[in-house]
């Protein structure tokens, strides 16, 4: 691996984490609108 390859790999991992965090924020926003007594099953 070259230094450039390593930097690219690390930046890709960071981007994946940021994308996952964004998805979690959207999910959290949806969950806040669920009524307190809501039963899924």
Descriptive overview:
The protein is built from one helix and no strands. It is mostly helical. The chain has one domain (1-33).
Low-confidence stretches: none
**Extended strand count:** 0
Strand content: under 5%
Which structural class matches the secondary elements? mainly alpha
Rounded radius of gyration (Å): 18 Å
The chain-level mean pLDDT equals 90
**How are helices and strands ordered from N to C?**
H
Whole-number total of structural domains: 1
What kind of oligomer do you see? single chain
Cα separation of the termini: 50 Å
Overall 3D form: rod-shaped
Helical stretch tally: 1
Helix content: over 70%
Q: Main β-sheet, in a few words?
A: none
Q: Secondary structure elements and their pairing?
A:
Blueprint: H1 3-32
List keywords for this structure.
mainly alpha
Concise structural overview:
The chain has one helix and no strands. It is an all-alpha fold. The mean pLDDT is 90.
């Amino acid at each position: 691996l070259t230094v450039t390859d390593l930097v690219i790999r690390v930046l890709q991992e960071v981007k994946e984490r940021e994308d996952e965090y964004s998805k979690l924020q959207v999910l959290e926003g949806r969950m806040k609108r669920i009524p307190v007594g809501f039963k899924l099953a």
